[in-house]
Amino acid sequence: MIVAKRKPFDEIKDMLKGYKKVLNVGCGTCVAVCLAGGEKEVDVLNAELDMARRLEDNPIEISGFTVERQCDREYLEALDAVVDEYEALLSMACGAGVQFLAERYPKKPVFPAVNTSFIGVNQDVGWYEERCRSCSSCVLGMTGGICPVTMCAKGLYNGPCGGTNNGSCEINKDQPCAWYMIYERLAAQGRLDCIMDVVPPQDWRNQTPRTVIQPGYKKPEAA
Amino acid sequence: MKSGSNLEKVLTAGHFAFTGELGPPRGANVEEVRKKAAYLKGKVDAVNITDNQTAMVRMSSWAASLLLIQEGLEPNFQMVCRDRNRLAMQADILGAYAHGIRNMLCLSGDHQQFGDHPQSMGVFDIDSMQLISMVKKMRDEKTFLSGAELDEAPNMFIGAAANPFAEPFEWRVHRLAKKINAGVDFIQTQCIYNMEKFREWIRRANDMGLTEKVYILAGVTPMKSVGMARYMKSKVPGMDVPDEVIKRLQGAGKGKVAAEGIKMACEQIEEFKEMKGVAGVHLMAIEWEHKVPEIAEQANVLPRPQVD
Fold first, then answer.
1. Residues of A in contact with B110 (CB under 8 A)
2. A66, B24, B136, B220: most buried, per Cβ within 10 A?
3. What pLDDT, in 10s, does the model give residues A36-52?
């Protein structure tokens, strides 16, 4: 899932300082699961904003509306009828959701309430770790299911570097060396041949916005 | 000859190579470079010019390399993958060659988190292995990484680093083999203190026939103090300093530790001269350039050979 973390309260408050009527739009998918921007977090943030603005003698009328997924038109549609009542929108979705919201209501100022962090896994309640950089050319088959782009601090394709430190990364003893783990796993599987050849330079053309069209589907004529 | 560099000539002629190192200044202080270079002149075959080592900003390695050429020394231009993408790297390789630089050392680079700009973006567009093959491609195939032809190839003598001590030890020789397959001509190793482990590493490299395909220069850094030895042991990733080394330095007595450190380095150098598979020594006298003449003298590596 996509993991996000709520922005510092003062930063959110500052973004909204010129607005008196705001709709906070939550998202019921990834950011709800990682406890950053679902219905509950919308309520908490709204209560905090309400109180802080009252204390400043500058009250704000803030409502909440959590959609199933902000990255999906089908679910955003429900907002069409209410958006006009507000001066601005606050979004607790990931960066994709915020942009989709802003794209749908181009006349409304839209502000992000969370920092989108990474694609990660759930280690425990409230504890998430990054696992994928969505590089668009997955090498996990060759590296024993451990991503060198994400898990190696230098993103090396031909590691480990000279800084590998008894199984840890040179940046931090608590950070495992990705290439040490890759070696250990492949050795245990008898598959070290996977990393004997030099891996050629990566195609980083993922730095322009990417599009995926699944087999059997096509891009609509006019969106 | 691939490059015709002095280092390549010395190694090809079968001499025991002796290279040094010079860290560029944290500023535009040209005199500092000239001063350090003067200590090394005539004492080493080539001088590594570090590239923002430990991720601290310094005078660029190619610029300091040019100053060295002006002083009549041969630089070994270090390039790390941390600070530039493949466009900038290829451009700098061409520029460096155009100005007479003939050796280069391809490195990953210390992580930016260690340095004075931990907020910076680490580039790592390509890694050290891919950098080696890129320079080889530019030299031997006369094309850029993209495959497009280039107008006059940069004929570099291509070097890389190897750390015989980092875990997993079993992987170390295979990683060396990968660098050879990528196209490296010479290797300079991490500073060696654990001789037993190094002997085992070079034995494995000999057994695999690797030392016949690449020149290996053993890395030596004399210990200046007990504190330095302790720091290297506990704080520098990938460094293997056995307790015996620290004990021997401690036993040297007050005021004699540095001399003992130099003596230990010279003993190592004597062993490397006889060691099968070792083609020379890379002396990294960190901020101790003025001691290089003394060390070279004591290690019996002078005068340096003149090969035409």
1. 163, 170
2. B24
3. 999 999 999 999 999 99
